[in-house]
TrEMBL record:
<feature type="transmembrane region" description="Helical">
    <location>
        <begin position="222"/>
        <end position="243"/>
    </location>
</feature>
<feature type="transmembrane region" description="Helical">
    <location>
        <begin position="25"/>
        <end position="46"/>
    </location>
</feature>
<keyword id="KW-1133">Transmembrane helix</keyword>
<keyword id="KW-0808">Transferase</keyword>
<feature type="transmembrane region" description="Helical">
    <location>
        <begin position="52"/>
        <end position="71"/>
    </location>
</feature>
<dbReference type="GO" id="GO:0016780">
    <property type="term" value="F:phosphotransferase activity, for other substituted phosphate groups"/>
</dbReference>
<keyword id="KW-0812">Transmembrane</keyword>
<protein>
    <submittedName>
        <fullName>Undecaprenyl-phosphate glucose phosphotransferase</fullName>
    </submittedName>
</protein>
<dbReference type="Pfam" id="PF13727">
    <property type="entry name" value="CoA_binding_3"/>
</dbReference>
<keyword id="KW-0472">Membrane</keyword>
Amino acid sequence: MVLLYWSRGLYNPSRLRGLWQRSTTIAFGNALGVVGFMALLFVFRLQNFSRGVMLLLYGFSTGFLIFKRMIKRWYDRARNRKGEDLRHILLVGGGDMAAKYLLALEHNPYYGFHVDGYLAPYANPDLDVRYLGGYDKMEVTLDEPGIDEVVVALDAAEMHMLTRAFAACDKHGTRITMVPFYNDYLPARPTIDVLGDCKLINIRQTPFDNILNAFIKRAMDVVGSLVLIVLTSPIMLGVAIGVKLSSPGPIIF
């Protein structure tokens, strides 16, 4: 089960994964584990296990694990409100993308992020965080202890500064994340394909790109067709009899 949880990303320390996502991961992982265990029992012909007990095991284990996650989430948020266990952020950029990032943090304070300051060509009075200087101060700022993560929120005209930001973070071993200037056009969970040296971001997808959704649609088509055929069969039978009685020849032509 540990390997199964790990493969589903349950042990990922990301603060941005909500309780609902983790709960569905636990429920899905436990379901796979129970089904796999029952399959092993069937293969080895061990019939002395009650399916009711397996269902109880699934229910209790899922419930207790979700409850544990709820308690941990409450504890972490209580510490964050006290200013403990915060993740200190250096914001690179002072334009619209930076303002949007700060607004998102303001609306979601329970994630435990604290922006220590931002770097930009000039100070922006609309940003309610400390101005640390221009982009040339990046190396000096990262030399100081306390920065856990760099968030790059550059506008389109400043994309040439990405190389410097990546190089500085690689040198200091600092985690880096990015708010792209085309943020408004991205879905919540974009997928990336690789074509040679090109990374292709799938921005717009249809629901039927998902094989499960396509299967459900096809199943609904088949089941719906069968139901309609059964419901309309008396009418079609009456029409066929009427056609046969009113004119010679085959019914279907």
